[in-house]
Amino acid sequence: MELVPALLKPTDHVLDIGTGGGEKLITLAGSFGSAIGVDADPAMIETARDNVSSELADTIEFTVGDANNLPFDDATFDAVLNRHSVVNPAETVRVLRPGGLFINQNVGPMNLQNLIDPWRHMGSMDLQDPRELADEFVALGCEIEEFREYNVDYAFLDEASLLFQIKAMPMPVPVVAERDAELIAGLMESTRGADGAFHSNEHRFLTVVKKPV
Fold it and tell me: Among positive and negative, which fits the CA dihedral 17, 18, 22, 28?
């Protein structure tokens, strides 16, 4: 989300939904006046509080919060950020001030496609459709300022990184080493390149929404 600093103003009060450990929000600190990061996981909020420096303690705060039931009054924020977290259009628009921006990066349905393919026969993926989300914002009276799709190559440099990824990311079913040994071995063989790395892709959608004035 490299474009975010260009869209924010030094006076903006910003909400970061699904902030995790707060790393991304902290790197943007010079682009806004104040910010609150929320995450549904209390452990992540504790990590975020540990990550924020004393110099930024008056600028950024972190609190537990659910994207589907945000603990803030209407029209509280000039901008709402979301990166790979759950999007609730109605709640997002509710907490935005008139003319405010929602800047969102979604994981696309083809993300890490060849890593997921061996397990697709076991279940289905439950991902929000970025195009449907954009339509929901339009139905709420908002304007889509930007809607961009991109798909880029991505490589894992070693087996440990690849294994960590397939065990940690959303999958049709959880990966179990003992049960899935053949699938994992086949995956490593099929994705290993001449450079020794394991190759896949990142599929993303960028959406910038403006609430009407």
Answer: negative
Contacts of 201 (CB under 8 A, 6+ apart): 110, 111, 112, 113, 114, 151, 152, 153, 154
Domains and CATH numbers, the chain: 1-107 (3.40.50.150)
d(CA 186, CA 89): 40
Tokens encoding 90:
């109605």
pLDDT of residue 209 exceeding 70, the answer is yes
Could you report the per-residue pLDDT of 85-98, keeping only the tens digit for each?
999 999 999 999 99
Written as six digits, the tokens of 147 are 């809607």
What tokens does 153 get?
């190559």
Give the contacts of 69 (CB within 8 A, at least 6 positions apart): 91
